[in-house]
Each structure stands twice: as structure tokens, then as C-alpha cells.
Amino acid sequence: MDKNLVIDVGVHTGEDTEFYLKKGFRVIGIEANPNIYHDTKQRLNSYIETGQLLLLNIAVSPQNQPITLYVNLDRSFWSTTSPDFVQRNEFFGTRSTPITVEGRRFEDILQEFGTPYYLKVDIEGADILCLQGLQKVESKPQFLSIESTKVSWNDLLKEFTLLKELGYKKFKAIRQPDVPQQICPFPAKEGQYINHKFEYGASGLFGEEAPGAWLSETEVLKVYKRVFLEYRLLGTNGILKFPLGKILLESLQLKEPWYDTHASL
């Protein structure tokens, strides 16, 4: 494991990547959308020139072969390789167009670039591929985060079974709409201290800086039982399935919640 390396799977416009870079980490960034990749590469070019950042225009895939990426035309961060997520996105009134991009297995990426200290994954329906890739390499990241499933309790249990098999024993469930309220601790617990304001949609603090106490699997699943009740009330299978549901949520300025699972060895 390279203690100075972060791998950011799902770079998008680079808000998370830039945070890790400013904290002094070396970053391998993965972004499948070619247009966003080129824009982000240009914006963060100074880090690329110094060798602190390497951006890859690829999609994590089950096979090393071209794969279809459904580029969301209304919410670019909802672009996905998952047909199920395309249906979800259409439910919310967004449009997608398919393009073909290079696909690579995550275990091959790790074998080429090494195991990071922290692995951040947010690739809309394909996060599990990264966990499966970790099964095929010996060394594991000290910390990782994935966007937890919000559709199936059984799928959530499968995620935690896989995390346990990988050696992860401590967990946090981080409510992502609250990330803009996070404050970087001083002195820093991860990398260098920076005074940083997180944007809505950012992954936020990680490792020992992530808010809240580390929980056992039993404890964090109790948290997720409450989270799934929140999903049922405010999610696509709750109030949103009714015609006036979206209007009501917008009038109350409520957003469908989502959570990231953070794990530590």
C-alpha cells in the first residue's frame, strides 16, 4: 500500500480530486466521460505537469473491452454504465445518450498503479466492481468509501459481506447532503491541513477525518435500517412514486438522501 496515494474512481469535475491533491496526496483519477475528462484535465493541468496527478479516461468494467456509457445530458454526475441506473434517471426526467468508452478491470488498474491509502468510488451503479477487483489483489487500501446501495437491503448486506471478506472491520455511514457542512479538522488527521469548503455532491472528508465514530458491522447496519426507512419515505419507492411527490419535496426543499459507506481495515 502506498500511503501517499489516493485513487479517485469517478472524478467528474475533480472537486474531490483537487481536495486530495491540496492535502498533499498523489492521485490517480478515473473518469469515463471523455468531455468531462478533457475539461477536468485542463483545469487540473498544473498538478499533472508536476506528476502529482494522473487522469485516466476509462470506465471500470468487468472486462478489458469497450463498454457503453450512458451520458446523462441533464445531470452529468448521473452518467452510468448501468442500464438499471438509466431507468432511475429517466424516472427523474433526465435524458441520456449512449457512447462507447474504454473499459478496464479494476484489478488490472491496481496492478499497474499500486494499492492506494484511500480508495474513493462513486460510479453510479458500478461501485461493486471495485470491491470485486480488490478481491484479486493482495494488498488493500487502509480506507475506502463507496456510495451505498439504496434499492435493495439484500444488496446492501452483500456489500458488507464483501467488505468483511476484504478485511474491513470498522464502518461509517455518511449522509452525503450534509457534506457541505463538514469542516476540516486542525491539526489534520490525514495529509496536510487545508481550509476547504465542500461543494454539494462532494464526497467530503475521509479516513480518520470522516465525521462520527467508527462502528462495527452490526452497529452500522442498525444505522442503515433507519436510512432505508428514510429511503422508503423520501425515495423513488416512497413519496416520489406519487404524481405530486416531486412537487411536494421541492416545495419543502427536501432532497432524496444518499449515503456513502466508509470502511477501515
From TrEMBL:
Residues 8-169 form the Methyltransferase FkbM domain. NCBIfam families: fkbM_fam. This is FkbM family methyltransferase. The keyword S-adenosyl-L-methionine does not apply. It comes from the Bacteria. One of its GO terms (biological process) is methylation. Keywords: Methyltransferase, Transferase. GO terms for molecular function: methyltransferase activity.
